[in-house]
Amino acid sequence: MIKKLFVFLLLSAISAVLILAYGFKQLEQRPVQLTEPYFTVPAGSSARGLCQQWLAQGQLNDIDCQLLRLYLKWQPELAKVRQGTYQTPDGATLLSLLRLFASGEVAQFSVTFIDGETVQQALARLQQAAYLQQDVSTTSQILALLNWPAEWGGKPQHPEGLLFADTYFYTANSPASALITRAQQALLRQLDQAWQQRQGELPLQNRYQLLIMASLIEKESGLLAEKPLVSSVFVNRLNNNMRLQTDPTVIYGSTDYSGRITYADLRNPHPYNTYRHHGLPPGPISLVGSSALQAAAQPDVSDYFYFVSRGDGAHVFSETLEQHNAAVRKYILGKNDD
Description:
Layout: H1 2-28, E1 38-41, H2 47-56, H3 62-74, E2 84-87, H4 94-103, E3 109-112, H5 119-128, E4 132-133, H6 139-144, E5 167-170, E6 174-175, H7 176-196, H8 207-220, H9 227-239, H10 247-253, H11 263-267, H12 290-297, E7 306-309, E8 315-318, H13 321-331
Parallel strand pairs: 4-6
Antiparallel strand pairs: 1-2, 3-5, 7-8
Helix pairs in contact: 1-3, 2-3, 7-12, 8-9, 8-12, 9-12
């Protein structure tokens, strides 16, 4: 009798284990169809609480949550879900989601500041960034975050050029001000490095002027190989007391630019117009990347004083005004002197 009872209990235990194992296997495969690519686990959440939430949504049933309660006794680490916003994979299951939430590997978002764009355009990118806490809404607030070293020359009155062009990663609900501070610190590091590595006898008095020069180079050419050559033209003109006469400065300071530079634009006396004023403009005209800073600090050595766009992104460089005018006739006016 005792032997039969033992066998019965043993078989019952085996059956229970097999049933539970089958249930756990089904739990492993139980899909949870989330409607959004990201899921936020609030503070104070639990695995069982999430199960109840998905049960209320019709994603799961009572048996799933009962099985999960038993499963968590076997795998208690899955019960410790961490708050945050997670990117949910395709074909997510109940247990795969709980493993993700327990790992704490929250989603990474990014925003890119593009070299050659203005700080206002960078601010617009910030304001469109997903899951970013918008605590900065004006360029004056960007400037207020800046810690500009007094010995670096200049005293920036506007935040133009003071964010380093790069991609910055963040987690959900990070403040925009934190990204701005990181971009400013990156700019300060890159600018200081370029200044320390600069060529001797450049017509630049301080780091701020180097940044201004880099922004002019950035706006004039997007070709990496051309930037040191563009820089050499500006250096040659400064050394010979020639006006820089660079079109992007005309555009930057204009309040009614129509898309094409006119003679009236060239005569506009605004302080950024390098057709009207000698030397560098009073501040940068765009965000810059490392290549423009390097080109400003280490220009090519050339006898060029002019360049004109070929219309394909590259430029024709000239030593004399006569050569330059011929290039303008060919590439701008469509006339060939031959």
